[in-house]
Amino acid sequence: MSTLCHMFAVSHQNEVNQNIPQIDEKDTLIYQDGKLLAGSLEALIQHLVPTTDYYPDRTYIFAFLLSSRLYIRPHSLLNQVCQTCTKQQGLNRDGMTRERLAQFGPNIIQLLSEWTEMFPYDFRDERMMRHLKEITQKIVGFYPALNKDAGIINANLISRLSALQKYEEILSRVNNEIMQRSVNIVPLTDITEVCPSPLILAQQLTHVELERLSQIGPEEFVQAFAKETDLETTYKDVKRTSNLEAYVQWFNRLSYWVATEICMHLKKKQRIKSIEYFIDVAKECCNIGNFNSLMAIIAGMNISSVARLKKTWAKVNKAKFEILEHQMDPSSNFNSYRSSLQAALWRLEGAVDDREKIVIPFFSLLVKDLYFLNEGCSNKLPNGHINFGKFWQFAKQITAFITWQQVECPFERHDPVLTYVLTNPVFSENTLSLASFECENPENHFEKDRLKQLTKTAEDSL
Predict the structure, then answer these.
(1) What is the pLDDT of residues 124-143, one digit of tens each?
(2) What are the two backbone dihedrals, phi and then psi, of residue 28, each rounded to the nearest 5 degrees?
(3) Measured between alpha carbons, how far is 280 from 285 in angstroms, rounded to an integer?
């Protein structure tokens, strides 16, 4: 079975060589070189609706369902699709039979299956479930043999939404456990005691990354960039980006957790051990293809509270750390990282082992790339048509992301390590600074003033 990512690549290879844009006056869809570039919302919806002898390309289904939420709410779109099908095929007409409908029934069931598979989170909306139930019942009335297919759609959808709900409940429990612990409490142990092996910690971080990555719906990227001024109606009820935001928060927690693990040690020898340990963990993350944890660890060691520990860093073997920093060097638009990412993608293409399939991108940069793609092109053309050329590109990048997030973690789980990483106290920025100054005294007027300010703030809060 071809993946969406592969299908997007093929669709661009099969373009017809034409230089002049063609305007299909009947459908008001604009093509160039055999590629759909623009059209009215109504025409694009019509292009989505299957008939007895037409079924939309899967890449179009994904691209349109992904981008359409900028212009129409998913439940309104599904309602329009259902109404269009009912009108075109005469589903409410007396005397309509399965024979007259021919292939339409299997086609519309297939479209609904694609929708629920690609964007299951849309169906957390009760209105979506109601429309889905109504149209499937109507179709099964004409095609009793499709009852099994309709049942599979419903069962798969319920399974996916139940898994999401379970994930959110677990995430909520973890967050509550974190909140119940004071951020100012110094941990009684450290990660080198809980998990002496840098490789095992890198593997456990990969578990967390893939679990949280897998829960991000592709539509969350579009909804994250949606602006109220771009929408014809209020969009608060569908602008859900909680899984995307939770993933970004995980990156921040990991960075501050690394800094906490280093600064909580008053003995220089222990700090050196912690820093060199995390350098090895970062190296293992890089080897695995877990670039998000790699960058979070590097970011944690570059937080000012850690970076200022000159006496500590003087004793650290920094050669490996400098190599890793070069991998994530932001110069030339993260050229070094992009080269490493490309190498991981080549490994993925020829993977013979599950461990070779892991590609976890530096998420903030991925979001940044999508943001600039979104901001760099208008959603609509001057004539009011939707700029679908932009959304082809957007969908193409998202399908690559979907491929990465579908990989199951092949490493053995170590629950004590995961619990420690996910719930152990993490210092706030102020507490981290105070801990840093306890490790090594302030060296200049700025640091001395900073310490006085932090001390006063701490005393005032008592």
Answers:
(1) 999 999 999 999 999 999 99
(2) 50, 45
(3) 9
